[in-house]
Each structure stands twice: as structure tokens, then as C-alpha cells.
Amino acid sequence: MFKGLGSLINTLTLTVLLASAKDTPPNVILIYADDLGMGLLSKYGQPYLTTPHIDSLAERGMTMNRYYGSTYCAPARHALLTGMHDGYSGAGSHSRGGFITTLDRQEKNPQQWQQKYDLHITERQQAVPIPESEVFLAQVAQNAGLTTAQFGKLDVGFLTWHERVSRLGWEHYVGYYDHTRAHGFYPSYLWKNGNKLPLEGNHRWDAGKANENASEPVGSLGQTYSQDVLLDELVDFIDQNKERPFFLYHSTQLPHGPAAINDLHPEVANNDALTFSEKKYASMVKMLDDHVGIILAELKRHHLEENTLIFFTSDNGHESYYINKQGQSAKKLNTTSKGKKWRTSDGGDTFNGSAGMVGLKRDLFEGGIHSPMFVVWPGRIAPNSTTEHLATHYDFMATLADVLGQPLPKGKDSLSYLPALLGKPHQEQHNWIYISGFKNQGFTLITREGWKLIHSPKIGTHLYSLQDNFLEQSNVADQHPDLVQQLLSIGQNQFNKERGDLNVSLD
After folding, report:
1. What is the span of the domain harbouring residue 357?
2. Of 2, 144, 498, 507, most Cβ neighbours within 10 A?
3. What angle (nearest 5°) sits at the alpha carbon of residue 181, between those of residues 175 and 187?
């Protein structure tokens, strides 16, 4: 999968050419799946379901073969929205989730609920203020004249509110403020531009969160499925803004578990090879693919395809939210190598969501952090193309700025991969990318040459040559002591790093 990369060059000339090519900037859509392992896509060999609409993005555009997320949700969103790697202090978790569900559980009257909520938010604003000098992803789009909108999980980690969502640059939004509440797909309300949006037939304080074993019958947790509402709002936004450029960020819940859905998808409903739990999960993946198809159809309906740049990725690697025929959850199974244990999607994961890679969500191995990334821009990005350029979530800000002819805000780790998307021979390269371990437990450093260092209290120090050993089957740390020390020094200097004069604790 890994190949050699090109030399360094500034992309200013390219940016000027792109800016002059169009009188108006393109629309930009980022579809950000939740816990979608590469192996769940039929493009990567998934045998139990098909994902034709997501696969079509790869067919119509470019696949980034060396693209990385983070180990789990909060640091992934931090990296994406700040343009900075997730090693900075506070990047993994800015607040506790569950505050809103606690209020809903207490069944206070509306006035009491609001008083408690307002007090908590005031305290949070005072505890973690955002300095005026900080610039976030959506603000880059705003500065270029694009209308900005977000649909889905609105937090960065793990609680947010209207003033903070607006501060991050979102002019229009619908979704969940509380990350914990977003584990349920049947909330009694979502938030829309600062106000509660009631959802008919949903009454549970936990937003209809399913059991981990996914035993509930389909449609038993509520009447209105959150993703249907988010899709309707998203389509309406496109319809209302078809005459002006926009940046749309769809931070969907799908297919994050516990598995819950209104109906089993016809493609998997009668597959006897799958358990009921697995059918529900597969239906969530199918729904995500169907929703991508609806978004593409909406762009076509409004003749927006040619001037819309689409990105599709996932926050982190695969996680299993289903029970196999042996009554096991794959995320609780371990594999052992040389006395060290780490999770794998083999031996119990029916879907092989990590596509054979070692690790799941929360792991520093490839299965935990390697994310799919497909990019479509008709007439500019070649169909069925690939790149081996090393990139990660925090590069999205610089890429967006490059596309829109905007300067990259100061102090960012972000590097534009637009030249690679356009097939240009000269692409500036990272010397390395940095990804923190779960709850700041260690880190991984991946170099442009293909070396990967993992340093973690959980498993010790590992070194892999991804060029020769992409499946991380052979730890060669003992054979390269000088390189290990060099990479350890770099990584340890990034761990729990301070931002300097800019406070990046978003929530």
C-alpha cells in the first residue's frame, strides 16, 4: 500500500490558479462517518453487504491509501476542527458527557431544566474560554464567503452548546450537543440553531440507547430515528442554499453502536449467516450508504455536481457493536503475540471491519486509526485515482484553505494535500504525523518513509516498516535502536503539548 512520495514545494501558485479558475468557490461537503472501519465497505471486500454509493465516490474520484484518523471520537474531532494534532493538552476530552441526559432523567419542569442547563453552561464558558485569536475549520470557509452548516454530532468532546457551536463557525446546525446522548438514536429532541427540535414518538431520557447486545426488536426504542431527521434537514439545507456556495459537514452517528434501527435493510434481513444483532448493525451501514446516495442525488437534482467537492472519511477505525453466533462481541476478543495482547477484528468479527488489520477503535495499530478517505471533484480530480500521500484529519483545514484560496491560520499543524488530489507532481510532505493513544495513553508516530513507532504503557514500544509489513506482524524495534530513540524523542515532545498562547480546550 505504501509507495515513495514526492519532494517539497509551496502550493501558492496552485492556489492562485484554482482561485482564478472559478468566479465563485466550490461547495464543499465532508461526510464524516462514526467508527466505520474500511472492511465494512464492499470496495475493500465486505462479503455480507454492499456499499455502492460510498464505493462510487472512489470510482468518481481519488482514494487516499495512507489516510489516518485518531484512536477515538473526541481527539479525532479536535484534530479535524482545529487543524492541530491530538497530542495537545485537552485534545482528548474537554468535558464530561452525559449532563443533558442527567437533566432529562430528572424530569424537571421546563423552567427548572433551563435554569440548571444555563448555570452549567455559564460555568463551562468561564472554565474553558476560547481566545479571540483561535480560528476553527468552519471559519476558514466563512472567510471565503461560504455558508456553513453541520448536521449530526455537534460536540468536540463531549458537551457543547449554542454559543460554542457558533463560535466554531457553524451558521446553521441540527444535532446533538451531548456526545453521550448521541449514543441513542431516538432522542425526544435534537438541537437546531440553539432551540430544541422535538421528535415525535420518542420519550426515553437516554435517547433510546440500545443494549450492547442489540437484543431489542427493531423500532422498539422510539418512533422517530435521528438519522432520518438529520438527513431531511441536510437535504433542506442544500435546497435552500443551492444558489450560493456552502460548506456542509455531516458528522453522522452511523454506524456507531449500540446497534439500533427502525427496519432491517432488505439486503441483509434474510441472510441466515448473520445474527439478528449483526443484521441490525449491517442495516446501519446500509443506511449510511443509502444516505450518501440521497446526498449525491440531491446535488444532481440541483445541478451542483460539477462545482461540489466531496470528502468521505471516518473519525477512527472499526469497532464492533454486535454479537456473533457464538454469543461473543469481537471487541472483547484478544489475540496474543509474543506475550502482548491487543484487540483484533479476526476470530469473532463476522464483518472483519478492520479489513485484516490489527486493532480496533482505541488502538494505535492500523485497525484503530487507518480511515477510508475518498475525494470527488468532477473535472479536477481524476476518476478511479489513488494517492500514497501521507495525510490525516488535521490536514483538512489546510486543504480547505488551499481550495478556497484562503491563508492557513497561524500555529497549525495542518498541511494541504490538494496537490496530491489534483495529481500534481509536487506535494509538500509531513516528516511525520502524530496520533495520541486512548485517553492519552501513549502515541504513534508515522513517517513519510513508512516507519511507524507505537509507544504505549499497554504494549510497550513497537516499530514497524509499513512499506514491508503493513499488517504489523513483525516488531523490528530491536533491530533499529537509533531510529526508535529518534522517533521516541519526537513523539514524547508532542505528548500533552501545550498550545502556547491559544487555549484549544473547546468544551
Report:
1. 26-97+130-431
2. 507
3. 65
